[in-house]
Write a structure and sequence with these properties.
Number of strands: 6
Helix content: 25-40%
Radius of gyration: 15 Å
Largest sheet: 6 strands, antiparallel
Number of helices: 4
Strand content: 25-35%
Strand order of the largest sheet: 1-2-4-5-3-6
Length: 147
Amino acid sequence: MSSIFPDDMWAVAEARINGLPVVIRFRTGLPPESDRQVNDNLIIITWAYQGIETGMPNDEDKQRTNAFEEAIEKGFENSDAGVQVACLTGNHQKEWRYYTPNVEAFLEAFNMCLAGHPAYPIELRMFKDPDWNALSGLQPEGSDQLH
């Protein structure tokens, strides 16, 4: 699935939500429309945490969310089940955004990634997003390059 992003280019930006800083890591382009149409299922994984006053994670939150992220990144690295397009950290939560052609296959791969891990305080939400608005809405105006 990562072949839909052959250059694998990412950018980092900062925004404010509810007056708190949010660090956003996102892919810099969009795959061709044909790939977007096939991978039109958006999965948003959210991990709410107490964090510190600024809304960023404390050291324990960072360690736990990083362990979770490493497990899912490794599991999806060479998988056709889903591709990560963004990660947002701040405002007392961390959020990962994935696209997949098949929700059931994504969930199966997701559960396999986390086999043997402790239960994590996450929420998964699924949406149809054939235009990939959950990624394009994070990209700066005019960054409509295709990979």
